[in-house]
Structure formats: C-alpha cells, structure tokens
Amino acid sequence: xxxxxxRRMGRPKALVDDWLTRSVATLRAxxxxxxxxxxxxxxxxxxxxxxDGPAPHPAGDVVVASDWADGMGASLRAGLAAxxxxxxxxxxxxxxxxxxxxxxxxxxLAAWRGPATAARAAYGDPADPRPGHPVLLGRDHLxxxxxxxxxxxxxxxxxxxxxxTAVWCGDLAGGADVDSRP
Length: 182
Hints:
By secondary structure, the protein is α/β, with parallel strands linked by helices. It has helices at residues 19-30, 43-52, 72-81, 102-109, 142-148, 156-161; strands at residues 37-39, 62-64, 89-92, 118-125, 128-138, 165-168.
C-alpha cells in the first residue's frame, strides 16, 4: 500500500527515494508470486516510478484508490477488492517500512496455514512484541478485513478478534514506519 499523501513526510511516501520500487522488489524476493500495488496521492508520478524501475511492474497489478484521502482503510479496501477471486490470501505491506526486507516477508509467509490464516510481523521487545507489517490474511478473512477498514484503521480489530499469530521479526528489522526525514 502506497496511496497516502505523506503529510508528515512532506510528500507521498510512494515518491520518497526508492521506497516504492524497493517495496515491490522486497515482496518479490520474499516469495510473493504477484504484487498488487495500491496508489492514490500523485498516482501518475508513482506509476511512472514503477514503469521506469529496474523491473517494470505489470499495469494490471496497480490499483488506484480513488478515495485514498479518506485514510489507510480506503486504500486497504481498494486493494482487497482487486484481489483475484482465486487468490488463496494476501500479504499486506506498507511502503513506509524501508528496513523491512525479504527475510521478514519470507518469515511471515511461512506462517501460512490455509485460508483461515491470520498472521503478522511483530517487533520490539520479544517479551512484549509490537504488532506490525507485513500482515498475512487467508481468503477466509478478506471480506471481513475490507468491511472493518475505514479512516486510518486497517484490519487491526479483525486481527485481534481472530487471534492473529504474531511472527517474531524483531531480529530482522525494526518494523517502524517512517513519517519524517531525518
């Protein structure tokens, strides 16, 4: 997901450095067979980065969330609505996590247990881990995730309700989103 305006950053995070193309490359290298990119603010400029990058991204794998300004929930809904009906599930990742690499993606994907899977990366103190991204959702949860997403809330409530598995990744990355430039 790379749709937001990045107000605290001063520009859309999809346009910051190589974050967008790096995120796509991270997902591919981590084992995602298909990467669906959700854009919004300055979608055309972000799309150009994908088209001109080292590995051009297929046009059919980009969704523009027309209501992106309503918050992250709108972007999540747009992305989930574009998931093919035969997809067994999705891995949701955010563009503003530049320290999350393919090793984190692989570890979260390894939590796959079928269509009822709900898992997410966890960071920070191993004794009191902080939930983060990426998030792995099996097909059974996709409709519910879209239904609860709204404003700046994604599927957090749903993940708590279904008891999502915490996948420890704190040894691989910090997992903190970057909201401003140092």
